[in-house]
Design brief:
- The chain is mainly alpha-helical and 115 residues long.
- It folds into 2 domains: 45 residues; 68 residues, Heat Shock Protein 90, CATH 3.30.565.10.
- Helix content is 62%, strand content 7%.
- The protein contains 5 helices and 2 strands, in the order ααβααβα.
- Strands 1-2 form a two-stranded antiparallel ribbon.
- Helix 3 packs parallel to helix 5.
- The longest helix has 32 residues.
- The chain is globular and about 45 Å long.
Length: 115
C-alpha cells in the first residue's frame, strides 16, 4: 500500500515519509522472519514444504517489490529463466521467496546510487 501511495502526487516531505515507512516495514518483517527462522533451526523444528509452485511468478513478484528502489537508484532489474527450467517446480515457495527477496534486496541496497 505504501508503494501505491508513493506512486501518487506527493510533495517531497510526504514522499520521504512514505519511503521511510516502506523501508522500515520491509526491514522489520525481514528481521522478524530471520529471528523466527533461527529459533526454528535451533530447536530442530524448521520444516520445508514440498509443494508445486510457479518459479517465474515468485521471481516477478520479488522484482516488483524492489522496482521502486531500483528505479530510484537507476538500476535495471530483469529476470531471465531458461526455457529448460520447468514452469512448475516442487519445493518450499515461502523459503524460496525469502531467499530471493534477501538476495535481490541486498543487491539493490548495496548498489551504489547513480544519482
Amino acid at each position: 500500500m505504501l508503494q501505491m501511495l508513493m506512486d501518487t502526487d506527493l510533495d517531497a516531505d510526504q514522499l520521504d515519509y512514505a519511503q521511510t515507512a516502506h523501508a522500515s516495514g520491509k526491514d522489520l518483517i525481514s528481521i522478524i522472519n530471520e529471528v523466527l527462522d533461527q529459533a526454528k533451526i535451533e530447536s530442530g523444528r524448521l520444516e520445508l514444504e514440498a509443494v508445486p509452485f510457479d518459479l517465474r511468478n515468485i521471481l516477478d513478484n520479488v522484482v516488483s517489490l524492489f522496482s521502486g528502489k531500483s528505479r530510484e537508484k537507476e538500476i535495471e532489474l530483469a529476470i531471465y529463466v531458461s526455457n529448460k527450467v520447468p514452469e512448475i517446480l516442487v519445493g518450499d515457495p515461502g523459503r524460496f521467496r525469502q531467499i530471493i527477496t534477501n538476495l535481490v534486496g541486498n543487491s539493490v541496497k548495496y548498489s551504489a546510487d547513480r544519482l
